[in-house]
Amino acid sequence: MTYTRNEIIGIVVGVIFFSSFLFGGIFNQLPLLSFVKHLHAGYISSFKNATRETPVSLYNGGVIYVDDVIGEGKEVKVGDAAHILYEGKYIHTTTHEEVVFFNSKDQKEPVIIPVGDKNIIPGLSIALIGMREGGVRIVQIDPTFAYGSEGNTRINIPGNTPLIFQIYLLKISK
């Protein structure tokens, strides 16, 4: 299912305020609020040239993505190996600054992600499925589809932290 940019902003803002009402405080939602603010302000490159018809996809409320560039190559399916370049970051809950936890520009080779593998965070596989070679996708992954309440101490990601990725799909192999 795909939604336009304005529809997804409306859904996300509605979820934030509804959860704030139910769970006691909008300030618990600051990373998501920051993402919405960036969406609306055009901070993420995908939205700078977005129109009312720019599709944004939502998966079970846990993975939100938009294609900055729609590739023209093969489409990723479960079981494929996606050769990607990406930057992974999150919004720090107290400083509200972006924290980059991984940038593949620091490596000499692309990262190869086995799509659907149980050792990969589910949100990343979900975000890659349907992406085409040559494409660029911006993704926000809810903690339930990432590292959950435990976080990942190896790469210094706190628990209950939404992740933001910019992914460039170079090629697909089996």
Write a structural description.
The protein is an alpha+beta fold and 174 residues long. It has one domain (2-173): Chitinase A, domain 3 (Roll), CATH 3.10.50.40. Helices cover 24% and strands 30% of the residues. The chain has four helices and eight strands, in the order E-H-H-H-E-E-E-E-E-H-E-E. The protein has helices at residues 5-23, 30-41, 45-48, 122-128, and strands spanning 2-4, 55-59, 63-69, 81-91, 98-103, 111-114, 136-141, 163-173. Strands 1, 2, 3, 4, 5, 6, 7 and 8 form an eight-stranded antiparallel β-sheet that branches. Helix 1 (5-23) runs antiparallel to helix 2. The longest helix is centred in the first third of the chain and has 19 residues, at 5-23. It starts with a strand and ends with a strand.
The span between the termini is: 27 Å
Number of domains: 1
Please identify, by name, the CATH architecture: Roll
What order do the SSEs take from the amino end to the carboxyl end, as H and E? EHHHEEEEEHEE
Segments where pLDDT lies below 50 for 5+ residues? 16-53
Average pLDDT over all residues: 77
Could you tell me the strand content as a percent range?
Answer: 25-35%
Q: Helix/strand-derived class?
A: alpha+beta
CATH class placement: Alpha Beta
Count of beta strands: 8
Shape: globular
- Our count of helices gives 4
State the CATH topology.
Chitinase A, domain 3
Helix content: 10-25%
Q: What integer value in Å does the Rg equal? A: 16 Å
Q: Sheet bearing the most strands, described?
A: 8 strands, antiparallel
